[in-house]
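WARN  no MSA supplied for this record, continuing single-sequence
INFO  ligand: iron/sulfur cluster
INFO  echoing inputs
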Amino acid sequence: MDRTKTRRVQIGRVPVGGGAPIAVQSMTTTDTRDPDATVAQILALEAAGVEIARVAVPDRTAAAALPAIKARIHVPLVADIHFDYRLALAALEGGVDKLRLNPGNIGSEDRVRTVAREAKARGVPIRVGANVGSLSKEMLRKYGDPCAAALVDSALDEIRILEDLDFHDIVVSVKASDVEMALDAYTSISEQMPYPLHVGITEAGTTWAGTVKSAVGLGAILSRGIGDTIRISLATDPVEEVKAGFEVLKALGLRMRGPILVACPSCGRADVDIVALAQEVERRLAAYTVPVKVAVMGCAVNGPGEARVADLGVACGRGMGLIFKRGRIVASLPEAELLEGLMKEVEVVVREKQAEAVDSAVLAPAGRPAVRSAPGQHGTRAAGHHVIESGGGGNAES
Ligand code: SF4
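INFO  complex generated
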């Protein structure tokens, strides 16, 4: 997929824009004034693969907690600030890697200039943007109702304020809860400015409905090549946001983190309990971060075909199943042994892929892609998970 070329910014050690891998981010739901709870949630997000974590900074106590949080996590930390420029300055002092604020709502030009100067001195980007729920009265007067044009107009206003101060480390968002409005807004703004886009369907809803809505919205936007970092907004444990984010990117072939499970829905032809088997395989695969494709299929109609094109597959028959490894049948097992037999082969393939990743890194000549530790790998990540990062802004990873 051709991606719109944007200016690259650096959020801590995570590059965003300019062809860098689309970063998955989330936001904590804990009280930021409680560092222990906030750190615990960010570590859980890291274990799920989050690459950037945002926290709300509503007051000075929350701002004062930022250094203690930052010291105990492994992914870049973003401070979400509204109205009070002093909180932005405190967050910068506290070592955050990015600010999310709108210059238009933190007061006088002097105050905005001070924040921009301090952010620039530290190499800290600022995300600006509009959200359909917080359009200004002026914009609502101008456009009547919230609409894509109002979102874009608002975001461009915020961008101009920073550009006028010679600040260009900008990330932009134009979020709506309406999919069509969000698609129009992101498409329009991506044609009008060079900065990387943080994409999301805001206030998408609860786990099930919100995930579907986000997948539809982000799928439409990302498939146009638009978007440099994503956040799925769900009214649930934010770990679910991270899992959903990676599934969206995997479905579009934009990122490859963790296994891909192909499972048939079962039907009257299946002779084994394929739904139970697929669910248990999915649960066990969640332990892996290596991209391995596994197919769990119910019968001979589509089973052998899907199983053959996966890294591993099981195609079931009457009370039994064939296990395929990269297109070759490696075992024929009774139903009771299928799960363990398949997972044993998964373990082998995962180890092979990890060894391949290390080999390709060792063999890469100077200037070629090199293997680095994935963001968030320290401490909570499974050993052996690597991301292939090309210095020129490639999007490949393993
Ligand atoms: Fe039914 Fe077989 Fe298709 Fe599964 S693979 S849905 S069991 S026909």
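The pocket of iron/sulfur cluster is lined by residues 264-267, 269-270, 297-299, 301-303 (CB under 6 Å).
INFO  checksum written, moving to next record
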